Amino acid sequence: MELLVENLKAVYRGVILALDGVSLRVGPGEAVALLGPNGAGKSTLVRAVAGLLPKFEGRVLDGHIRLNGQEATHLDPVRLSALGLTALLEGRPIFRHLTPLENLVAAGHRLSPKALKEGIEEVFARFPRLFERRNEQAGYLSGGEQQMLLLGMALLTEPKLLVVDEPSLGLAPKLVAEVMATLDALRREKGLSLLLVEQNARAALGVVDRVYVLERGRVVFEGDAKAAMADQDVMEFYLGKDVVGFREAKRYRRRKRWV
Ligand SMILES: Nc1ncnc2c1ncn2[C@@H]1O[C@H](COP(=O)(O)OP(=O)(O)OP(=O)(O)O)[C@@H](O)[C@H]1O
User: Fold this and answer.
1) What pTM value is reported for the model?
2) DSSP string spanning the chain?
3) What are the residue ranges spanned by the domains of the chain?
4) Domain 1-84+159-231, CATH number (from 3.40.50.300, 3.30.420.40, 3.30.300.10, 3.10.290.10)
């Protein structure tokens, strides 16, 4: 599925401009990272694409969101989901008081009983830890296990475009690598399009084709992921915190402010 965002402007409470004319594209079967510092507008973009801005007292002021060419700017989440878009919001929104198995059943409510059973078997085959803990309370799973559960739930919605907001948040490096590898495998096996929103640039760049960097509601860099990773200037200037220490990055920015 193709996602096209064109000159999108979004505000909260009518006054806080969080997206100031953002354009980006995720092609069919393509994996794209959206990177940027705290407050850049990444989650706002995810909410806008998923039709969830009104839930956060926000709205799209201007611009378009298109799915496979179809106007999708003001569609509600149910309609968007029926079109094949699944968005995983920041903070691992699972049903914490239910078990992993019950969470999966809830996520797959649109499937036939047979497809649901097969889907859940597939999820458990992919994530054996979830199978082991399938009848425990999901809120007590580790952060990594909860992230896997969320990905399993996403799979049961049979997405064509998966938008994932900061899956690495709060995870140890080894788990971050595992989550990224899982996203990569899912994308390839299922032919999904993937928009991966991250602060962890290094982790995300390893599994995507292209990258956009957002700062203060604007796209400040756009390019091929491998080229961006190989380009020390790009990495340090736009994504400095990841590569060099925060202080050094700030100094570097000051030096390069004239560009
Ligand atoms: N519900 C809200 N009401 C008012 N302002 C908001 C709301 N959510 C976000 N903002 C503001 O919008 C701007 C963009 O925030 P957003 O959460 O999209 O950034 P982000 O890049 O996702 O940051 P982070 O990585 O910290 O999640 C920030 O200035 C933020 O304070």
Assistant:
1) 0.90
2) --EEEEEEEEEETTTEEEEEEEEEEE-TT-EEEEE--TTSSHHHHHHHHTT-GGGGTEEEEEEEEEETTEE-TT--HHHHHHHTEEEE-TT----TTS-HHHHHHHHTTTS-HHHHHHHHHHHHHH-HHHHHTTTS-GGGS-HHHHHHHHHHHHHTT--SEEEEE-TTTT--HHHHHHHHHHHHHHHHHHT-EEEEEES-HHHHHTT-SEEEEEETTEEEEEEEHHHHHH-HHHHHHHHHHHHS-HHHHHHHHHHTTT-
3) 1-84+159-231, 94-157
4) 3.40.50.300
List the end-to-end C-alpha distance of the chain, in Å, as a whole number. Answer: 36
Higher pLDDT, 246 or 170: 170
Please tell me the predicted confidence (pLDDT) of residue 240: 67
Closest-CA residue to 216 (of 14, 10, 25): 10
136-167: pLDDT as tens digits: 999 999 988 999 999 999 999 999 999 999 99
Residues 6+ apart with CB under 8 A from 127: 148, 149, 151, 152
Which residue CA neighbors atom 28 of ligand 1 most closely?
39
Determine the distance separating the centroid of ligand 1 and the alpha carbon of 147, expressed in angstroms.
22
Which atom of ligand 1 is nearest to 36's Cα? 21
d(CA 205, CA 87): 20
**Which residues lie with the beta carbon below 6 Å from any ligand 1 atom?**
12-13, 16, 18, 36, 38-44, 56-57, 199
Instruction: Tell me how long the chain is.
Output: 259
